[in-house]
Design goal:
This is Phage portal protein. This protein is 42% helix and 17% strand. The chain has twelve helices and eleven strands. Helix 1 packs parallel to helix 6. The protein is extended. Mean pLDDT is 77; it is low at 1-14 and 226-232.
Length: 397
Amino acid sequence: MLNGYTPIFSQFGDNIYASDVVQNCIDVIATEISKLQPRHIRVDSSGMQTSPKGSLNRLFEFAPNELMTTREFLEKVVWLLFLNYNVFIYPTYEFVKQNNGSETRNYTGFYPLNPYQVDFVQDSSNKLFVKMYFRSGESFTLPYSDVIHIRKKFSVNEVMGGGMNGQPDNVALLKVLQINDSVLQGLEKGIKTSLSIRGILKISTLLDDGAQRLERERFEKLMKSGESGILPMDLKGEYTPLNLDPKFVDKDTLAFLKSSVQEWYGVSLAILSRDYTDEQYQAFYESTLEPLVIGLGQVFSKTLFTPRELDVGNKIVFYHKDMMYLSTSAKLNLLKTAGEQGLLTDNQKLALLGYPPIEGGDKRTMSLNYIDVNLANAYQMGRTNTTNGGKGDEPAK
């Protein structure tokens, strides 16, 4: 074109993360998962939960390693998972000898790894190892049982998430992104075309380049001075306007392409724009976040604890305790339901409303309007006897 702009469509490529919609969807998921509070708990035979003191809860509370806080650690894990459909976390530990002569692991850190190649190998005893290659040129072979391995879309490959070769299978998504990119390029070129050339000035006489430049400058001066919209011209010039009518894609098509990407990641427009209701967030949590929360707890527990430790109730749970997204009415309903049952301390109730804790606020209070179902009949019989003056089961009048 005359302004030096070449209207050629470039190829989108194979990297889905070049799309702003993809990055926004993953960012929303990673941000929400980063709010989780991982805890080491122990559940006894009666169902009572305790939080053992030790290295695990200390690491989970503030910093799993010297480079990351807990929030940053969880965010990085999610990004690596969606980038590679596999994420490997290596827990460092040291052995501690107990009084009875046995050894236990004292964990000292958790490190998310980003190898460019991973091989699975077995020794003569069929023990599985994982060999990871890093871009620094180094490689390490570790027992697979010592590595926390989280998979996404675990399907055709026996040990890796993603497609047959353990790589992200984004063929279907890539088609949508390529169409969306072509549409966006078309919009950009249509806008530039409509703003670049408005008409053609035909000069009837033969002029050299210098004379043509002077004639063009005279024409532009006339355009600027023509407040009435009428341009006075001599017999040498003839101006022909160009009526450009670029065709733009309708908003429904654009919305469809964008929603296709959002559905791929399970992130609705309301969640993406951060303008959601309690019900919309609950649906997002149950369909998109909760599988990740459950999977994190299971794979951490399986890797960090021996079968014996699992049998006695040790587990890692990722709590989604921050309910500040709830509306005021939803918070009050939660306080009423959980508070009457004695599930929350006074300080937890204050925190839910955004108030600081108070001294002595760790006690739990509950309503007396509830009774054990096993005691209901005895309670009712006692009320009947009291009403009848202690005359047995005679109906009250």
